């Protein structure tokens, strides 16, 4: 266990507001990559252990013998200006991680939902979770070399997006592109507060 | 066939917390910032709690930062932090938007400007 961390691991003393955004999507869609390309800290990984409902949950003694699942989530951080810290949470989109979503969605401003046109249906669960938690969102289609080029209207229809929900494309490996996707999300959230 | 359905409900188990499943307070968001209160010796604490206090002597860390640096599950981290707040070893700075309140337009505006400037 480390007992000290380098200075950059700490949140600046002057930070007075934290904003939480989720980067959500299926496994392998590019969440960690996107967070890494914009975060000022090396993305950190944390885990939550869950056990099947009904098993004893107040004690971990003998947990090895119980049915458990570990959910990994990673996060990054950006200090913006003097007093604002943005936390980005890579959030796995499977509905069985509902308990974790409740935590993540608590106080979150919104979500960037990553989609992969090679398998759009893989983000249905994520969209359902985001909507269920009342989080405003923007969909970013992450481009892979073998991604079919669907017209935007087709993607919107496949995902059943409301007319007001922005759809952007991005390359999660690229800082500028990832930043643009985040800007699209924050602009949308800002727009919603004025509605 | 496995008797376990793929869509089973998952709940969280708890370690290192004396068997308690819930923290003593429920205001701890994942991004609540924590720092160590000076002059509070950590020597008598358990190893995880002591490590937390020591990390927090260097400045502010979020709940998730502590979970990640100490490789502890989030739920466990939370229970330990709540204890350390109760005992006065840690102090929290609540910087996040309270759940259920509308998004703050001013914060979003500043966020947007800062992202453009990045
Ligand atoms: N071509 C391309 N590859 C990407 C992109 N985003 C992620 N990848 C690759 O896809 C793989 C999975 O990405 P990862 O970020 O780990 O996905 P996660 O499971 O959602 O966190 C990695 O090998 C990435 O390098 C992208 O926008 N374009
Ligand atoms: Mg990942």
From TrEMBL, chain A:
GO terms for molecular function: GTP binding; hydrolase activity. It comes from the Bacteria. CDD domains: Ras_like_GTPase. Signal peptide: none annotated. The keyword Metal-binding does not apply. Keywords: GTP-binding, Hydrolase, Nucleotide-binding, Receptor. Pfam families: ATP_bind_1 (PF03029). Belongs to the GPN-loop GTPase family. This is Signal recognition particle receptor subunit beta, a GTPase.
UniProtKB/TrEMBL annotation, chain B:
This is DUF742 domain-containing protein. It comes from Streptomyces aidingensis.
């Amino acid at each position: 266990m480390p007992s000290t961390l380098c200075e950059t691991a700490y949140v600046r003393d002057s930070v007075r507001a934290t904003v939480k955004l989720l980067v959500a999507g299926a496994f392998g869609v590019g969440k960690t990559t996107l967070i890494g390309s914009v975060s000022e800290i090396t993305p950190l990984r944390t885990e939550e252990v869950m056990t099947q409902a009904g098993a004893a949950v107040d004690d971990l003694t003998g947990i090895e013998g119980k049915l458990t699942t570990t959910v990994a989530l990673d996060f990054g951080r950006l200090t913006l200006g003097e007093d604002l810290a943005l936390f980005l949470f890579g959030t796995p989109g499977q509905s069985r991680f509902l308990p974790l979503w409740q935590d993540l969605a608590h106080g979150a401003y919104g979500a960037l939902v990553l989609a992969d046109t090679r398998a759009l249906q893989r983000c249905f669960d994520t969209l359902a979770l985001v909507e269920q938690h009342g989080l405003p969102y923007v969909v970013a289609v992450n481009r892979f070399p073998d991604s079919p080029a669907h017209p935007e209207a087709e993607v919107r229809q496949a995902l059943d997006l409301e007319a007001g929900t922005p759809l952007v494309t991005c390359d999660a490996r690229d800082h500028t592109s990832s930043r643009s996707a985040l800007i699209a999300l924050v602009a949308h959230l800002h727009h919603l507060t004025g509605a | 066939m496995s008797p376990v359905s793929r869509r089973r409900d998952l709940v969280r188990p708890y370690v290192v917390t004396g068997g308690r499943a819930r923290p003593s307070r429920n205001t701890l968001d994942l991004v609540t910032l924590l720092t160590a209160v000076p002059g509070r010796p950590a020597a008598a604490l358990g190893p995880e709690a002591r490590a937390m206090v020591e990390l927090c002597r260097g400045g502010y860390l979020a709940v998730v930062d502590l979970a990640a640096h100490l490789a502890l599950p989030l739920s466990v981290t939370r229970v330990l932090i709540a204890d350390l707040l109760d005992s006065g070893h840690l102090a929290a700075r609540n910087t996040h938007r309270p759940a259920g309140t509308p998004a703050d337009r001013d914060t979003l505006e500043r966020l947007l400007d800062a992202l453009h400037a990045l």
